[in-house]
Model the fold of this input.
Amino acid sequence: MKKGNWEYQRRKMVEIQLIGRGIRDKKVISAFLKVPRHEFVPPPHREDAYGDFPLPIGEGQTISQPYMVALMTELLLLKGEEKVLEIGTGSGYQTAILAEIAKSIYTVERIASLLERAKEILEFLGYKNIHFRVGDGTKGWEENAPYDAIIVTAASPEIPPPLFEQLKEGGRMVIPVGNRMGQDLIRVTKKDGKPKKENFGPCIFVPLIGEYGWKNGN
Ligand code: SAM
Done:
């Protein structure tokens, strides 16, 4: 494959890694065809930006595998008018995908340097519908609640209660839940004020660290 031919690599990523594995939502597919993933991957790994794996982004954190970003986005069942809360901005790539599809995105990251870099890239790319915050995302972002959809891109030992509270009736939350070695990808729908859970199989994420996640990074 020709290195540096980003558009070609992006098309191949979508055909093989996403459509080839069952991603069908047209809005998700067109967002992936549009967003330049290589811009979100720091230089030592940029050449591998369209590979079928997560990559380091600094501070011990990762940009998730493209398929995982696509699957989590598809599971949110976005139509275009939603207000979405994202916990774990990381590189900002998932944020850009969400911003292509939904109306407004509220994204929270606990590591200030990562949030700053993500914000710079997203502003450079021209996104105007993203709101940024540094802090403990396990507590959500109450001032702007409720949300139509919530996505948590780090592994949690349980569903953080404040996040469920901040979900609208009928809203969806997608979150990896389990222990530090492995999790299940769970979709929680708020139905009559109660959580309805569906399991979409095993996954591995970096830990969600905070008051309603793990208490420390060890
Ligand atoms: N979706 C991101 C992307 O596309 O690059 C990948 C996110 S990375 C797998 C998980 C992120 O969650 C890390 O940047 C980590 O610092 C962040 N994180 C962990 N605990 C957090 C918390 N309590 N609040 C906000 N962010 C948190």
